[in-house]
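Summary for the funding panel

The consortium committed to producing paired sequence-structure records for every protein in the target list. Below we show the first two records in order, beginning with the earlier of the two.
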Amino acid sequence: MVSDLDVLANYKHTFAFDGDEAVLKAIFIRIIHELFDNTLNDIHHYGMPHLGGSMVVERFTKQDGLAVIRRPQDSDLIMRIIYANWRSMASKRGFTFLEFILTMLWANKWEIMRLYHSYTRREQYPKHVVEIDSSENFLTSRIFVLIDGGVDVNELRQLTPTLQRLVPANIVATVGIRMNIKPFDVGVAAVMKSYSVARFY
């Protein structure tokens, strides 16, 4: 983190005419520090919020819709890293940032699959999406984000809307969790590989 800002640094070195003025100067400096230190330092970091205090990071992540990613067990450092990357990637966010967030939250317990659709059944799009790239299918603007079953389901349900907003505007993302149960029909997931999933929207 950047060192605290001392807005009175120059004033501290100004000349005091006599003892009374020196005392008044010291009182003024102490009052300013006691009343406004935190506020001034927070404002100082508004241009680089990932380097500011926890309140600055929280304020700006809320403003950019990333606060929901914050988890109680995570340190402020992780949230700073996520937000610093969010700001630096700018127009390159999309899939790159989604992959970064998934890795920060769940290490390697995730997979992103591009989805395809049958040419012959294109009138029924997107009912017949699959993850198989073949001459009979065309690439769609849909993806499936599959998370391993060991993660917290309630947490994933809360994070799903945020994860879906991280992809480019032309991409439709469906989020699901791998389930250790017998196959059952869940729409999109039913035509995929031999694992079962529960979908989140």
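The next record, for a separate protein in the list, is shown here:
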Amino acid sequence: MNFLLFFFALPIATILLSIVGEKILRCPILVAITTFAIYLIVTFAIFSSIFLVATIVYTILSYLAACVTEIFLRRNNQVQTISSSSVQQVNNNSCNNCSNCYRRNY
């Protein structure tokens, strides 16, 4: 097997597919299980059983990438929620000329 494929292409592909899988499935464990299943089939269909160690390493890498992506997506969602609520608050500050408001039209 080509070492460039083993040490560069497959880990990068695993990370990218884990990000996409996390975006779709929204569960890091399901992403890791899916990655393990795919690499397990590839291990016994194409490579020898020595590739099984790499399968386990790629599965751990997939889980870590999915966890990092989940944290990033949650923080991004919180920022969007906070910014949209502040925009709604600014839009709701219109005065209804009620008796309790300090901004009455005289």
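Regarding this second record: The longest helix spans residues 51-91. Residues 18 and 62 are 5 Å apart (CA to CA).
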